[in-house]
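Incident review: delayed structure delivery

Summary: a single-chain prediction request sat in the queue longer than the usual turnaround. Root cause was a stuck worker, restarted by the on-call engineer. No data loss occurred. The affected request and its eventual output are reproduced below so the record is complete for anyone auditing the incident later.

Affected input:
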Amino acid sequence: MPNNDGGSNVSLMEGHGRAGLDIGRAPIWLGGLAAFGIVAAHCVAYIMMAPEGEERALLMDATGHQFWGVVFALGLGVGVAGVSWLMVNFLHPSTAEHSKVNLFAFAAPRLMALQVGGFVLLEATERMFMGGGAHALLEPVVIVGLVVQIAVALVAAVILSLLTRTLHALLSTSNRPSVGAERTLPRPTSRWVQPSLAPGTGAGTWRGPPLRA
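Output delivered after worker restart:
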């Protein structure tokens, strides 16, 4: 709804289409951030379950992680691209209304849903290639991984919100005119203080025409 300064306060909960337009192309940056969150939380879960490097390597080989290096590199690249896309859209002059959006409330539930779903799909695919059944998704490492996915999604949403707020504060400060610039601005002169010269009163001076005899 319109506000007093002629802008508009946009609520992200008004609809997915409207929210996507106001916050940048949400599927792009959300998907990228969620992809990196999946691989990052996946690594944390396996480190928690198998702190020793050799033990962890055996566990990952037994659960279908032969190509994990490629998956991690792809997740990292997509995550960086997604965050970069969001920052570019946020810094664009036409997106000034982003400062009025609760980015944490928008991103947190979506990241949690994407990461939990993506993690389950990833683990199911890995177990399928290893010939495991659906019961493999109840393994302790998968249960722990689901909890870690939620925690990483919340942390990512907090960092994203703080980052965009900091950028907005820096941009707002840089756009304010300095005190010196304000002093050099021309001051309007009232016609009551300095009246204009009337035509026919002489050669542009305060003296009038010579009196005729």
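Verification: The CA atoms of residues 38 and 119 lie 6 Å apart.
Action items: add queue-age alerting; document worker restart procedure.
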